[in-house]
Amino acid sequence: MEMTPDYLVKQCKSLNARLIEWRRLLHRIPEVGLELPETEAAVRSVLEELDVPLQESYRGVGLVAVLEGGKPSGRTVAVRADMDALAVEEEPGREYGSTHPGLMHACGHDAHVAIALGAACFFSQHRQRLPGRVKFIFQPAEESMGGAQRMLEAGALEDPRADYLLGLHIGDIWPEVGLGQVGVSFKPMMAAADAFEFTMEAVGGHGAAPHRSPDPVLAACSAVVQIHTLTGRDIDPLEPAVVTVGQVEGGSACNIIPAEVHARGTVRTFNETTRKLIESRLAEVVAHTAGSFRCRHRFAYHRGTHPVRSDPSVAGLVRQAATDLLGPEGVRLIERPALTGEDVSIFLKEVPGCFFALGASNPEKDRVSLHHSPVFDIDESVLWKGAAVFCLSALRLLGDSASGRAG
Ligand SMILES: [Zn+2]
Ligand SMILES: [Zn+2]
User: Fold this and answer.
1) What is the distance in A from the centroid of ligand 1 to the CA of 143?
2) DSSP of 286-311, one letter per residue?
């Protein structure tokens, strides 16, 4: 049987029940950060069942598996799935709900893993017809950031070297991508996500004698207000940028001027000039505000991920593959970027690839993809589409002629 788009649709649809099973298995055992022992054990056991071996040379965080095709082409396509969850208490009542108190797959990464396993399943059943190799990268710590960087440094893209990389995000991040549609972008589609923190310091004192001790609370509050004027006054109004202070900590009682107050924030940008400008203006605003309140200060800026941007030619190939599978009405062009960050950008900086969206929000079924919320859920009937797009795109990138277009 030739691996035509119609054949892939039929095969991947028939896998959907297994994809749902895997997604629910992972949904019950959410874990956060770099170490995901139960999640990894579950993924390992499915890979074993599918006879897709782990890459022996890989010794870093997460899991890397390589499926060797029966028709060598010398090319390798990587499929990346993030596996981590969030510190969110899931709304009770779901039969497949989290069994880990305080933790939840509230961003759909459980579905990403299930979809990648679906692609692994298809390719393991069609191994003899696969030209080249498919490498599966199961990554921890996407939400907390740092997972992709750690995997890159540990050699996840090497041995064999990935020539291309594919990844997806399920849910409802880009509103133009409706239920069951695939969204592809030729522009930056997610932002660079950086973090900053500052501390205002003085000596501490009595709340009834404010003239005798500089006030870090007032200095920090004033700095927070000033910081939020940067996007309105320092940045070109046509340039998207967000600065948010999400955390302020300090003080122990209503009548004590504390010795220090600590604040943390995030910066989202799409270009390097804006990013640098915000970094330097933040440092100035914090320093000058501290000075004006007679406080000392500390400031640090932590660079995070790059903007997420697909390689235009790979994005074009994925768009065509999705169109051949789902028809033109099943594919949307993402025009408006999201200000969320994604560390798949670390991989996409190294290897040409495509990150695409799969719309899965379905209010009619009470499956609303409100990311990072306790009610987040997805319409699982669309999972197979992600696997089909991975498979057809990978086949074409690997140069399979029967699948429609050579890569
Ligand atoms: Zn998320
Ligand atoms: Zn996510």
Assistant:
1) 6
2) HHHHHHHTT-EEEEEEEEEEPPB---
Residues 183-236 have pLDDT tens digits of 999 999 999 999 999 999 999 999 999 999 999 999 999 999 999 999 999 999
Q: Which domains does the chain have, with CATH numbers?
A: 5-189+307-397 (3.40.630.10), 192-305 (3.30.70.360)
Query: How remote is the CA of residue 184 from the centroid of ligand 1, in Å?
Result: 19
Q: Cα(32) to centroid of ligand 2, in Å?
A: 12
Ligand 1 centroid–CA 359 distance in Å is 15
Share above pLDDT 90 across residues of the chain, in percent, rounded to a whole number: 95
375-385 mean pLDDT: 98
Q: What is the percent of the chain with per-residue pLDDT over 70, rounded to a whole number?
A: 99
Cα(357) to ligand 1 centroid in Å equals: 13
- Kindly give the distance from the C-alpha atom of residue 143 to the centroid of ligand 2, in angstroms, as a whole number: 7
Contact 113, 28 (CB under 8 A): no
**Which pTM value belongs to this model?**
0.91
What per-residue confidence (pLDDT) applies to 145?
Answer: 78
Q: Which amino acid is it at 366?
A: D
Q: Where are the alpha helices (DSSP H) in 51-176?
A: 109-125, 147-153
Rounded distance between C-alpha atoms, residue 345 and residue 311, angstroms: 11
Quote the ligand 2 centre to 8 CA distance (angstroms): 26
AA letter at 369: S
pLDDT computed for residue 405 by the predictor: 56
Q: By the 8 A CB rule, do 391 and 398 touch?
A: no
Burial class (CB in 10 A: 0-12, 13-18, 19+), 54: middle
List the end-to-end C-alpha distance of the chain, in Å, as a whole number.
20
Q: Ligand 2 being an ion, which residues bring their Cβ within 5 A of it?
A: 107
Residue 379 has pLDDT above 90, yes or no: yes
